[in-house]
């Protein structure tokens, strides 16, 4: 009997040991994680990438919009011999889906940041899709319109340096309205820049920027000519940011080449901007913004030209051939018998944003832009007045309706139009 008990007990022990060895070879199921490690030093939404000291914020925006008399360039001036007739699209539709990745990391030189912002679009109901030369269009897609993947921003910031595609350091502050306008300069360029923090909210930046996005055209004896790019645009600014708002002065120099037709010249632009917070007008978010630009041989810097959102009602020198403003060919400069005549241009604008309630706001715009070159196209003057009404019924959802009146005087030929634009935006 004792032998039987010993045999049974030994067998049980051996079985248990074998089972334990097999169980040790099996993968151990990880405990569920109920939290994400937050990076509080960079603001809300940042969290640590597992296994690194890099903080990442993932976000994005989706918006759908449509407008009437709000397609690219100026729909109310003639487009060549065809004019504005039954073959012209009066309505424009767009849908955008954008993703933003913001990665930051602390180093011995300060914060290392990389930022990517881009996505996909579908645009219908207009004559072609104009953009910032980053669209991959597919004619005939999506009901006869255009679809594309594009990149808005992609840059690295480190120890005061910025490298990549970003907003030009000439620009001051974005447009308050959804619709574009002809008096707010706003360019996205490939650039290399250095910003020095001078203390007390004061900073200074020097930047070399891709000139292709600020070129309008060149003319010889009034006719457009091809030109190449040699030197980048040189941009500098001095900016002050305080609790009451911000102010900036900026300057840009751009090379004007004629491919052997004349000696190279340089065009210039200077700008001043002031944005003031005005809570005394009724709400903490109320602001007013002033901006003025003067240019000589650098028309684009006034806002009259290529624009990141030029398919949304902008008045600019992009209709038809490059540099065409309706039937007027606007150029940065003209050369005749070796004499270069640069185009003089200027713009001034004022915008006011008022919160009627925490969820309802209005933005008012008034602007004037003009360009002169009597050796070629003569004169162009653009006056614009607009209002945007926006409602955010819930957090991160906004419905906006814009109305923009534009009057153009091109060599004493007046034209005007009212454009409307509706947008639904969801950010996350």
Short description:
The chain has 428 residues and is mainly beta.
Rounded mean pLDDT score: 80
> Over the alpha carbons, how many angstroms does the gyration radius reach?
29 Å
Q: Helices and strands: which structural class?
A: mainly beta
N→C terminal distance = 76 Å
Percent helix range: under 10%
Shape: globular
Secondary structure tally: strands: 23
Please indicate the percent range of residues in DSSP E strands (runs of 2 or more): over 45%
Uncertain regions: pLDDT < 50 for 5+ in a row? Answer: 1-5, 11-30, 72-84, 126-145, 308-314
**What kind of sheet is the major sheet?**
16 strands, antiparallel, barrel
Question: Could you spell the SSE succession in H and E letters?
Answer: HEEEEHEEEEEEEEEEEEEEEEEEE
Commentary on this structure:
The longest helix has 24 residues, at about 1-25. This protein has 2 helices and 23 strands. By secondary structure, the chain is mostly beta strands. Mean pLDDT is about 80; it is low at about 1-5, about 10-30, about 70-85, about 125-145 and about 310-315. It is globular. β20 and β21 form a beta hairpin. The strands form 3 sheets. It has a 16-stranded antiparallel barrel with strand order 2-3-4-5-6-7-8-11-12-13-14-19-20-21-22-23. The protein has a 4-stranded mixed beta sheet with strand order 10-9-17-18, with no helix packed on it. A two-stranded antiparallel ribbon has the order 15-16.
